[in-house]
Amino acid sequence: MSRIGKQPVILPDGIKLQLTNTEVTVTGPKGTLKRPLLEGLDLDISGKSVTVKRLSNEQRVRAYHGLMRTLIYNMVEGVQKGFEKRLEIVGIGYRAELHGNNLVFYLGYSHPVDFPLPQGITAQVEKQTLVTIRGADKELVGQVAAKIRSLRPPDVYKHKGVKYAEEVLRKKAGKSGK
């Protein structure tokens, strides 16, 4: 039995979880999230707790057991509190601006980079060099942050680019001349 999969997910006040056919829907103050229930699993909803049950003991189903429990837990956390990723922009002249639902980045290219935000994601720009990405879907928040980071990945030689706020870069020494 999966140690993570057998733990129940506790539903806080104001959070509703429904299972319709093969789709799990979680509704809360931050929005509604939907995700298909993985094959070979079932949910046991009793009061304020939800437990993921396996229908068979196949290797694939056992692997999905803990994954589905974690996905449901992240959905509950997302609609209750939300998730956020912070990005730092480092470099002379590098900055970001928020125009409506688009982020515009100036990253040393000959042109500004326009980045449209997907639905369900909000961004906040602080001091032109700090960008905070917020949303209820943990997977989507991480994906958007990774795409923004890939616009100008951090350079380990010059320490310039877009990096996560908690990311630590070790500066590498350049070529040694004689």
Task: Please explain how this structure is put together.
- The protein has 178 residues and is α+β, with helices and mostly antiparallel strands.
- It folds into two domains: 9-80, Ribosomal protein L6 (Outer Surface Protein A, domain 3); 83-164, Ribosomal protein L6 (Outer Surface Protein A, domain 3).
- Helix content is 19%, strand content 39%.
- The chain is built from two helices and 13 strands.
- The chain has helices spanning 59-80, 138-149, and strands spanning 9-10, 16-20, 23-28, 31-36, 41-46, 49-54, 83-90, 95-99, 102-106, 113-116, 121-126, 130-135, 161-164.
- The chain has a four-stranded antiparallel β-sheet. Strands 1-6-5 form a three-stranded antiparallel β-sheet.
- The termini are far apart.
- The mean pLDDT is 87.
Main attributes of the structure:
178 residues; alpha+beta; Outer Surface Protein A, domain 3; 2 domains; 4-stranded antiparallel sheet; 3-stranded antiparallel sheet; 2 helices
Q: How much beta, percentage-wise?
A: 35-45%
CATH superfamily of the largest domain: Ribosomal protein L6
Helix segment count?
2
Strand order of the largest sheet: 11-12-7-13
For this structure, the CATH topology of the largest domain is Outer Surface Protein A, domain 3
Q: How is the main sheet built?
A: 4 strands, antiparallel
Number of strands: 13
In CATH, what is the class of the largest domain? Alpha Beta
What is the string of SSEs from the N terminus onward? EEEEEEHEEEEEEHE
**Could you report the average pLDDT, rounded to the nearest whole number?**
87
State the shape: elongated
N→C terminal distance: 62 Å
Q: Rg, please?
A: 21 Å
Low-confidence stretches: none
Fraction of helical residues? 10-25%
* Oligomeric state of this protein: single chain
Class by SSE composition? alpha+beta
- How many separate structural domains? 2
